[in-house]
Amino acid sequence: MTKLIEIRNLGIAYGGQTGWTDVVEGVYLEIARGEAFGLVGESGCGKSTVAYRLLGYGAANSRVQTGEVLFEGVDLLKLDARSLAKLRGNRIALVPQNPTTALSPGMRVGQQIREMIQTHQALPDGVSMERRIADLFALVGLPDVSRRYPHELSGGQQQRVTIAMAVSCNPDLLVLDEPTTGLDVTTQRQIIQLLSDLRSRIGMAMLYVTHDLALLAQIADRIGVMYAGQLVEVAPCDQLLSRPAHPYSRGLIGSIPTVLHGHSPGRGLRGMLRRDQMAEGCKFEPRCDFATAICRSTPQVLIPVADAQSVACMRWPDVTDAPDPKPLAPENLRPDREAAQLLSVANLSLSYARSGWFTQLLGKAPIPIARDIDLELRAGEIVALVGESGSGKSTIARAISGRLAPKSGTISVDGKVLDPTLAGRSVQQLRQIQYIFQNPDASLNPRRSVRAILERPMQHFEIESTSERLETALENVGLHAGYLNRYPEQLSGGERQRVAIARALLVNPKLLICDEILSALDVSVQTKIVELLMALKEQHSVAMLFISHDLAVVRQLADRVAVLYRGELMQLIDTDALFNSPLHPYTEMLLGAAPSLSRDDYIPTPPAMPDSPSIAGRGCPLAGRCPRQVGALCAESRPPTQVTQSGFVRCHIPLDELANGAADSGDPRATQVPGLSPLLHLQLRG
């Protein structure tokens, strides 16, 4: 295959008050036409820095020390701004990690795609601009949302808009920087299928930057593993995932949580990436289980060790011959059933006002988002709220935190009904509930140092702020005291999220609302944060509403799971019971979409994303998409609530049939997990 991109000896440094620091060193990389190349590594390893150089982008305080970036033989590092502008969006396109900051908040999303097409590409004869834009939205599983502004879309919907914009001109190379971190598993699979189809149809190559190896297993041809700015292994996808040759690759794979086991302590990496503790030789030596004295003083370079596989490790034969780390059964301590009730949400219904003076003049009704939500959390309990993008998860969290006044219903903490808005709540009530946002770029003040960001809530709630307390807070989330004087722009996406988590924990809340807080973190940091959250739960009885699309993390962390679809709770059930037998057809769909480390033949079904209303007016919201639909009954009649021992299920199908259907589905993720009590012996009652 012909080379499309070739990186030769790339070296990049960042400047600061103490001089220049090398962040990327001696990277060699090739991507052929039509090839999907995955680039993985922990947060801060330099993978996004390399990716953005393919578009000629670099931070203001960065400089290229050495090397070339050749696109069809032309060195992109030597092109002027005008030449780069012709390539960007047309020949080389970008899907950024954070759609909130990538999309212009003052422009409708249709106009933003229109600008891209008008700048770079003429439309075929007979195809109108409106039709082309509508087709692009359909391509990424959205209705025609041309008239909406970014803030009127969920985070997952915004990301699909950026993907539609990136592929609008059929680029030769698509650079994807963590493009699916904010998306649910079914939407992730839809996007992966979309990208695969684009590759086969137009021969588009991809550089896919991510920490999600399970997702890469479904699309990548080859994978490059980065550590501390260097490539330590490059291999075909299947070969790397089944037989890694570098200790770091092995540790990454061992750290990946699974739907069956969640995070298994002791399987993967130990320690954290600390550039201030690097050895003169192998940079991974301080964390390596295979290191010897010579590793500390001998630099390692990529050498071929097998067909199309290269590794930077002199101990690679010992690594490949070592037995695989065995997953451990999850150890999740369930909360005391008699613990005091902390949060109560009763009959909560939410809606958004329609925008624009004309629609308000016509008296258009608000857009419904969620209805009849009943939810309770006990002290020390973690309830996961799962569902596809746009289902209303974050909206419910906003209402609980006081950022959105409900249309109806009540929210109580410690038996006291809360005022619907932040302005009406006491200082003590504000301290009790802390919100960790999905997007740290929007929640961290770019003009304040990390120290000032951490001190602000402590000053607001009159808590003594000491350097020791701040340093401990950072260490708890895998950072060190050196970060206190940095600014958000000097941190990677994962490092920013860790600062946001540390800020929320500093005020000792009773309830944490965690809105996709792990989606931007690599697996080793995820494990550390999960352990931290579990410690808070067990030692301080902190309750958490944990919003996530990562079912493997939910498997390890949550006590109960609430399944939300288009604004309605479909199921509430104990975590163990859900993963033994999901019962509800929609829960089965979510579990079936969870990727594994081997390529599968899963075929995604597009999620229902209607323009309006956001929730069904009658019938089951899953009607029309449900694989077990009962004729017109599901479409015409709202499903009844069937009570189980650990929660409820909303479905027309009787409980015994739902349980038998899950057991007979043939999906290994719907069968009994070894070491756990079976669900089917539970006494189900209607």
SSE layout:
Blueprint lengths: L2 E14 L2 E14 L3 E5 L6 H7 L8 E10 L2 E2 L5 H7 L4 E4 L3 H4 L6 H12 L8 H11 L15 H12 L6 E5 L7 H18 L2 E5 L3 H4 L5 E6 L2 E7 H6 L4 H9 L37 H5 L5 E4 L2 E3 L4 H6 L19 E12 L4 H5 L5 E12 L3 E5 L6 H9 L6 E6 L2 E2 L9 H6 E4 L3 H4 L6 H11 L6 H10 L16 H13 L5 E5 L7 H18 L2 E5 L3 H7 L2 E6 L2 E7 H6 L4 H9 L37 H6 L4 E4 L2 E4 L4 H9 L23
Parallel strand pairs: 3-8, 3-9, 6-7, 7-8, 15-20, 15-21, 18-19, 19-20
Antiparallel strand pairs: 1-2, 1-4, 4-5, 9-10, 10-12, 11-12, 13-14, 13-16, 16-17, 21-22, 22-24, 23-24
Mass-distribution shape: globular
Strand element count:
24
CATH-level-4 superfamily name of the domain at 341-517 and 535-552: P-loop containing nucleotide triphosphate hydrolases
CATH topology (fold) name of the domain at 341-517 and 535-552: Rossmann fold
How many helical elements?
25
Q: Pairing-aware structural class of the strands and helices?
A: alpha/beta
User: Uncertain segments of ≥5 residues (pLDDT<50)?
Assistant: 608-616, 665-686
Largest sheet: 8 strands, mixed
**Helix share, percent:** 25-40%
Q: Regarding CATH, which class of the domain at 341-517 and 535-552?
A: Alpha Beta
Portion of residues in beta strands equals 15-25%
How big is the Rg?
A: 25 Å
Q: Write out the strand line-up for the largest beta sheet, numbering strands in chain order.
A: 6-7-8-3-9-10-12-11
Reported CATH architecture of the domain at 341-517 and 535-552: 3-Layer(aba) Sandwich
* Terminal CA distance: 61 Å
